[in-house]
Write a structure and sequence with these properties.
about 120 residues, mainly alpha, 4 helices, Protein-export membrane protein SecG
Length: about 120
């Protein structure tokens, strides 16, 4: 189960990086106006309008894979064993006494009880 989640996570990361790259390569709608007046970008590798179709379809395919991977990770994330309760209901860990304090020093009674935190929340 853990290997499947790792594979899906890797696919999601790679598609996210691919989408970032494809989105940065694409040109905006205003760039087509410059090609109409002879800016020289009309003779590109994919033709006058071929790059827009290829890049936008590739971005859409990667976005679909990204969202499917996100849904799969959410599904597998909910398959874990349910927790036994709230984090606030768990007892606080005991703090060990510091080694620099003298051994004969008296600890006040108020220091034994926590000043705030989960122990101060009233239970039902």
């Amino acid at each position: 189960m853990n290997a499947i989640v790792n594979i899906i996570l890797a696919v999601q990361m790679l598609t996210a990086l691919g989408m970032i790259g494809l989105i940065l390569i694409q040109h905006g709608k205003g760039a087509d106006m410059g090609a109409a007046f002879g800016s020289g970008s009309a003779g590109s590798l994919f033709g006058a309008s071929g790059s827009a179709n290829f890049l936008s379809r590739s971005t859409a395919a990667l976005a679909t894979v990204f969202f499917v991977a996100t849904l799969a990770l959410a599904y597998f994330g909910n398959q874990r064993a349910p927790s036994t309760g709230s984090v606030l209901e768990t007892p606080a860990a005991a703090v060990p006494a510091s080694s620099t304090a003298p051994a004969d020093a008296a600890v006040p009674a108020s220091a034994a009880e926590p000043a705030s935190g989960a122990a101060q929340i009233p239970t039902k």
